[in-house]
Amino acid sequence: MSTHFDGEKFINQAPVPDHGFSDLVRWRFNREPGVWNDSNGVSPGPPPPERIGGGELRVTFVNHSTVLIQMDSLNILTDPIWSDRAGPTTWLGPKRVRPPGIRFEDLPPIDVVILSHNHYDHTDIPTLQRLFERDSPRVFVALGNRALMEKNGIPGSHEMDWWQDTLLSPSLRLTFVPAQHFSARGLGDRNETLWGGYVLEGDAGVVYFAGDTGWGPQFEQVRDRFGPIRLAILPIGAFRPQWFMAAVHISPEEAVRAHQLLGAGTSMGVHFGTFRLGDDGQNEPVEGLANARELHNVSPDAFWVLGFGEGRMVPRVPVGTLRSAEVVEQRR
What we know:
By secondary structure, the protein is α/β, with parallel strands linked by helices. The chain has eight helices and 14 strands. Mean pLDDT is about 90; it is low at about 320-330.
């Protein structure tokens, strides 16, 4: 039995305000949404390389929270969504305002898919079905989500609890870590499945994908458990109005604070500019991040905003701080 399951629902490490229906109505009837512009005419980025090994690390921002991580000769995809809407049908749910930065057919073979939680903008069944049909990747999900995968023709997914880990290869370990969020795909299933982020440890160092999260103790816990982080992938969008969103979505300023607390060599922002989810405008998370970097004296070279479809090699952390395959092996 999970220590963060009360017998009926999963719970966060720190108390989260329970914004009920009345709060949702209050927000919806008092919205001050920022500006969004349809940018479906944007051309996709170039195809990423087939593989990256030799201790190198490459990351490609596709859209929203979909990131291609290439390390230790494996291709890992986070929260993939290529659908036009983030919802239960093709006509219901937030509609994307710009296309994915990489065409689906230009993806290299995907070995591993990691899903942070079951919200429609993070667990997109049509995309997962396409990936499974094409590549049959190993799929990792939070506790309670295997049934959703099997129901939709994606067998063999691996459920994980917080702090549970597994080897993806002899040199690459995957650990599921806490986040401050919630789960739901309908009106009556809130928090019946778990949510979280992931840490990858291998020859290329440590990569932290935070998933969807509000501010919580997980940043300090990840730093203390995993040591120097080569790359932190942190959400920066859907943070307004903060009285409603702060419990489950960090702001750009909090993302910079998380970058510093984690001691990350490099961070990159995600969860912005794709779907209208909060009241922040399309460019507001990026502008807020720029202001926060200046406020906290963080260089743009240390906290990236990649263009949709842009890929970059991630700088190495100082010699002697990488988590090597030997260290990974010792934790077996």
